[in-house]
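Recap from last week: sequence in, structure out.
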Amino acid sequence: MTHIKLAFWGLLVLLSLLWLAADPAAFGARGLLATRDMMMQYSGVLAIGCMSVAMVLALRPRWPERWLGGLDKMYRLHKWLGISALILAVAHWLWSEAPKWAIGLGLLERPERGERHAFGNPVAQFLADLRGPAEGLGEWAFYVSVLLIAVALIPRISYRWFFKTHRFLAVAYLLLVFHTVVLAKFHYWASPLGVVLSVLLIAGTYASLVVLFRRVAVGRRVTGTIVDLMHFPGVRSIESRIRLQPGWPGHQPGQFAFVTSDAQEGAHPYTIASAWDPDNPDITFIVKGLGDHTSRLAETLKIGQEVAVEGPYGCFTFEDGAPRQIWVGGGIGITPFVSRMKHLAQARQDRPDAPPQVVDLFHTTADLDEVALARLAADAAQADVRLHILVDAKDGILNGARIREQVPDWRDASLWFCGPVGFGDALRSDFAAHGFDTRSRFHQELFSMR
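Predicted structure tokens:
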């Protein structure tokens, strides 16, 4: 989380400093209308900057993933930037419209129109002539952006509608690029601010075109065929095993992939529940019916059906060098630990003399399926992992105190958590209060892509 906060606030501070350097006259603005012009420029720079970086992150680029801590963290940053762009765009629009409302209500005097300024620079004159269309298109792009970002942020709106509508933000973004190029003060473009803005706008424009033509991460997709399906009705989950075509680069335990089984629904992210064996190119996913799409998978998925698999992604890979680890899987959050246990069991067969990693796995669940729990226990036994299963109705709620009671040497361990965000945050706070170094030894998957 530290790196995504650094990236988020660093972007806002950098753009703010560059804007102040490019427009020092802002410090001497006098009167409401002068302040209005200053704030419109400032809010516009910040809004288009946030939206540009958000567009680039929508491509799921590889290069910042490791530094940001995984694609799950990258999507959290993408969400923060989208919300910030929305707030800044609303502020920009209010600075534009509020004085007009005040004039209409008689609260402000209408300023006298001076003679139209003639520009000696033909480029500046050309942009000035486009001011009217840029203002009109920018206003409509603002309304569309507000609507589409609201669709993305409201959980009650189905993922299908989110998938169908979210890419149209790329069209709104392209209109806002035109709006920015025309209406930003012309002298900005010859300053460091103009250089940074140009890079952001070019990168964002490229990203928008990739999104519009549906070419996001196309080079990381492979086709697969469902070869096995298993249902676990007690926990409302389905396990699917997919035989992949050549091209999959392999994956590490704890990573996830985007799977498309219905083109109308789009790609959904699922944690991989199997270890990778190049000689047996199968990949397994365990999915719980938590939404409209996932609840229908038991009826819609068929053996022999072709699907698209994109990835792998994520840095929840258990690689911290700690000889002692504590794993906590809440509900369907058990999936990355299943993958890791299969990997450890495979490694144990290949190197039987190697010292085993000491691991305690806590699995807490509100649902009960004896077959699923038996398979989990078998995986733990083969991986030499100490398993603790807690069913909420029978065993109560898992908390930090219960973990520390069962793992006396918890101070020497790292803790890996996957499950509900509130549960993870509570565990993090609890362990931090007991002196545990949560910044470097508490690893949490933020498995939410909208």
